[in-house]
Specification:
The complex is a heterodimer of chains A (about 170) and B (about 100). Chain A has four helices and six strands; from the N terminus they run βαβββαββαα. Chain A is elongated and about 65 Å long. With about 100 residues, chain B is mainly α. The chains are: A alpha+beta (about 170), B mainly alpha (about 100). At the A-B interface, α2 and α3 of A face α2 and α3 of B.
Chain lengths: ~170, ~100
């Protein structure tokens, strides 16, 4: 049996998304794939599962080794969206309920994510700049640049929230 | 890197200690949890990164047995652990200068 739900979690809603997926597992639904706003589940015996997220900018081929290692430690790869990966395991089957338990690895995960976002941010900023320049020198305003401008706001906010999260972990 | 400059992170230190007995990935996590009475738990994401670093430094070796990677501490790794232990001992010794900790 399959089930599809539509939910919106931003990248800074990691804890909420984890709690949602874990509550679904308690109702007998395990994540099988993810696409923007859409979670697809397959049925399972209701149980106490834990979800963890990993992020890497590596290509799928390079990442395969790490995925294999995590799987050999009892975690199941569930879904992927860009570099963002979803894993789950039964709480009682794993030694650690967290994939990452040290600050250095956590920093590496979030730094890679920030790097990716920074590239998208600068790219969009460039497009906004070009459109702004064109609008100034053209009688016809080019509205398409507004879309890029609108994207900069949540992107900037996401980068801020991730930096805050890193700061929080450094203190812990 | 000069040995006296090396300072191991807690994760690196306990993983090296566990590897005085050859183990596979899952076995390392279990060994660390057992020897620390569950006060130190290493996640597989952390373990993966540390093992990669240790292999690069040649502080551990890896052998494939029955399709499984088995890790073990190398002679150089052993020297690093010994120098770390003497560094930690000197820090403890420092505390003993205070009568509160004697």
């Amino acid at each position: 049996m399959k089930k599809t739900t539509h939910k919106m979690y931003f990248v800074w809603h990691e804890d909420e998304e984890q709690a949602y997926l874990e509550s679904m597992a308690k109702q007998g639904w395990l994540l099988s794939s993810y696409s923007p706003l859409t979670y697809m589940f397959k049925s399972c015996e209701p149980d106490d599962y834990i979800y963890q997220f990993d992020y890497s900018n590596e290509t799928a081929r390079h990442y395969a080794e790490k995925q294999g290692f995590l799987e050999s430690c009892g975690w199941t790869f569930a879904a992927r969206f860009s570099g963002w990966r979803y894993y789950y395991a039964k709480r009682n089957d794993v030694v650690s309920t967290q994939l990452i338990t040290d600050y250095e690895s956590l920093q590496m995960k979030y730094n890679q994510l920030l790097k990716f976002m920074a590239v998208v941010f600068v790219f969009n900023l460039g497009i906004v700049g070009i459109h702004f320049f064109n609008t100034l020198h053209n009688d016809h305003p080019q509205h398409i640049g507004l879309l890029n401008l609108a994207l900069l706001v949540p992107l900037g906010y996401a980068m801020y929230k991730i930096s805050q999260r890193m700061k929080h972990y450094r203190k812990v | 890197m000069k040995k006296e400059q090396i300072r191991l992170t807690e994760s690196t230190y306990v993983i090296l200690l566990a590897l005085y007995k050859p183990l596979h990935g899952y076995g390392i996590m279990q060994a660390v949890k057992e020897m620390s009475n569950a006060s130190i738990v290493i996640g597989p994401g952390t373990l993966y990164g540390v093992l990669k670093k240790l292999l690069k430094n040649e502080w551990i070796t890896v052998n494939i047995e029955d399709g499984q990677k088995i890790y073990a501490i190398s002679r150089e790794g052993n020297q690093v652990v010994e120098s770390e232990i003497s560094r930690l001992k000197s820090l403890i010794q420092l505390a003993k200068c205070r009568k509160e900790f004697m």
